[in-house]
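lol ok so funny story. i was supposed to be doing the assay writeup but got distracted and ended up predicting the structure for this chain instead. priorities right. anyway since i did it might as well share w the group, maybe its usefull for someone
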Amino acid sequence: MIYTLDHAPAHVHLVGPEGRAKIALNCPTGPVLPISIRGIDAATVKGAVNVIERELMELCQIWRSMHGDY
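and the output, tada:
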Protein backbone atom coordinates (compact mmCIF):
# COMPACT_ATOMS: atom_id res chain seq x y z
CA MET A 1 0.00 0.00 0.00
CA ILE A 2 1.20 3.52 -0.80
CA TYR A 3 -0.50 6.17 1.31
CA THR A 4 -1.56 9.35 -0.46
CA LEU A 5 -0.35 11.68 2.29
CA ASP A 6 3.03 10.09 2.85
CA HIS A 7 6.63 11.29 2.78
CA ALA A 8 9.93 10.45 1.11
CA PRO A 9 11.85 8.27 0.81
CA ALA A 10 9.69 6.14 -1.48
CA HIS A 11 8.28 3.15 0.39
CA VAL A 12 5.28 0.86 0.66
CA HIS A 13 3.36 -0.36 3.68
CA LEU A 14 2.58 -4.02 4.22
CA VAL A 15 -0.50 -4.29 6.45
CA GLY A 16 -2.01 -7.54 7.65
CA PRO A 17 -3.88 -9.07 10.57
CA GLU A 18 -0.60 -9.96 12.32
CA GLY A 19 1.04 -6.56 12.04
CA ARG A 20 2.68 -4.20 9.60
CA ALA A 21 5.93 -3.40 7.85
CA LYS A 22 7.39 -0.49 5.93
CA ILE A 23 9.57 -1.38 2.95
CA ALA A 24 11.88 1.06 1.17
CA LEU A 25 11.74 1.01 -2.62
CA ASN A 26 15.02 2.87 -3.21
CA CYS A 27 13.70 4.01 -6.57
CA PRO A 28 14.31 3.60 -9.34
CA THR A 29 16.52 0.51 -9.16
CA GLY A 30 16.40 -0.77 -5.58
CA PRO A 31 17.48 -2.50 -3.50
CA VAL A 32 14.12 -3.15 -1.85
CA LEU A 33 14.73 -3.23 1.92
CA PRO A 34 12.52 -3.48 5.01
CA ILE A 35 12.64 -0.31 7.12
CA SER A 36 10.48 -1.48 10.01
CA ILE A 37 8.63 -4.68 10.88
CA ARG A 38 6.06 -5.13 13.65
CA GLY A 39 4.35 -8.47 14.19
CA ILE A 40 4.90 -9.95 10.71
CA ASP A 41 7.09 -13.03 10.40
CA ALA A 42 10.29 -12.95 8.36
CA ALA A 43 8.99 -15.36 5.69
CA THR A 44 6.03 -13.09 4.94
CA VAL A 45 8.25 -10.03 4.72
CA LYS A 46 10.68 -11.87 2.43
CA GLY A 47 7.81 -12.93 0.17
CA ALA A 48 6.55 -9.34 0.04
CA VAL A 49 10.04 -8.06 -0.81
CA ASN A 50 10.22 -10.55 -3.69
CA VAL A 51 6.87 -9.34 -5.08
CA ILE A 52 7.89 -5.69 -4.66
CA GLU A 53 11.18 -6.36 -6.48
CA ARG A 54 9.25 -7.78 -9.44
CA GLU A 55 6.94 -4.73 -9.49
CA LEU A 56 9.55 -2.13 -8.54
CA MET A 57 9.40 -0.02 -11.71
CA GLU A 58 5.60 0.24 -11.54
CA LEU A 59 5.61 1.02 -7.82
CA CYS A 60 8.23 3.73 -8.35
CA GLN A 61 6.09 5.25 -11.12
CA ILE A 62 3.04 5.21 -8.84
CA TRP A 63 5.04 6.80 -5.99
CA ARG A 64 6.33 9.52 -8.30
CA SER A 65 2.84 10.26 -9.69
CA MET A 66 1.49 10.61 -6.14
CA HIS A 67 4.41 12.32 -4.36
CA GLY A 68 6.82 13.71 -6.93
CA ASP A 69 10.44 12.91 -6.12
CA TYR A 70 11.45 9.62 -4.58
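The helical segments are 42-54, 56-67. The chain has a mean pLDDT of 96.
back to the writeup now i swear
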